[in-house]
Amino acid sequence: MAFLNYHHLRYFWAVAQEGSLRKAAAKMRVSQPTISAQLAALESVLGERLFRRSPRGLSLTDAGRQAFSYAQEIFSLGEELLHSLKQPVDRPLRIHIGIADSVPKLVSHHIIKPIFHLEQPVQAACLQGKTTDLLAQLAVFRLDVVLANEPAPTSLHVKVFNHLLGESGVTFCAAPALAHQLRRGFPRSFNEAPVLLPTSSPLRRSIDAWFDSRKLRPRPVAEYDDAALMKVAAVDGLGFFALPSVAAQEAVTRYGFQIIGRAPECREQFYVISPERKLSHPAVLAITSSARNQLFAGSK
């Protein structure tokens, strides 16, 4: 397999800009035979002649013009890289976070919120999607981490590492009128009560198991992929719903829900999934430290 030598490309780029071997040699501070040999080596790798002689000196062939266009872009990107790395420390720290769509929005917001309070400004790009799709992007380094409520499945054959942030119990909430009605006799009051459920997810499996263990049979009204849409339905009093206890108080404050009761033994776990065993990104370290020491510490 042939490999491109960027020193050869740099010499070619100089000759193309200057229009002659002599001027390029003077600019690069090397001899003309050195540049001539470098050009010959590049042409051998590319399998094309890059220059032709003209009355005004050297001119680019069609292949040469194509190679020059690529060289311009390559060296421009190199300058951009150097400039970027030499910026002052207050340059925004970039982080690309994938958020599994099964993670409740209120929880994901609480988990990533500490990055915006770092000394260095942070610019975050958050992408929501299916866990498998996000892990595929993580594998090719388009994402720095994936936030999920279950570990990465081993069946994907992607080399990633699961970092447990913590776990939370579950709280049941509803609009005030329905919450007042269901709070009396909880949890037996859930029998035949209207419930809004997430579609297949760790939270759904956990609450289904909790209902079964207590022989409770609520009446499903609707199932949602989108937790935000489920909250809109709950605001209208269409049913009660479950969410991780770490986000319950904000659901009460922000949306006006009331708490019906809690199921601390009904657990949901949250993970940061990364391509590295040892986390090093400052923003990711802020996420893991805050989640473990504050958000999920002693969560019920």
Nutshell version of this structure?
By secondary structure, this protein is of the alpha/beta class.
Structural write-up:
It is built from eleven helices and ten strands. A hairpin with a 2-residue loop joins strand 1 and strand 2. Helix 1 (6-18) crosses helix 4. It is an alpha/beta fold and 300 residues long. The strands form three sheets. It has a six-stranded mixed β-sheet with strand order 4-3-5-10-6-9. The mean pLDDT is 89.
Question: What general outline do the C-alpha atoms trace?
Answer: elongated
Report the biggest beta sheet as strand number plus sense, adding barrel if it closes. Answer: 6 strands, mixed
Would you report the number of β strands?
10
Structural class determined from secondary elements: alpha/beta
- In whole angstroms, the N-to-C terminal distance is 59 Å
**Regions with pLDDT < 50 over 5+ consecutive residues?**
none
Helical coverage, percent range:
40-55%
Q: Could you tell me the mean pLDDT? A: 89
Placed side by side, the strands forming the largest sheet appear as 4-3-5-10-6-9
Number of helices: 11
Radius of gyration: 30 Å
- How much of the sequence lies in strands comes to 15-25%
Topology as H/E string?
A: HHHEEHEHEHEEHEHEHEHEH
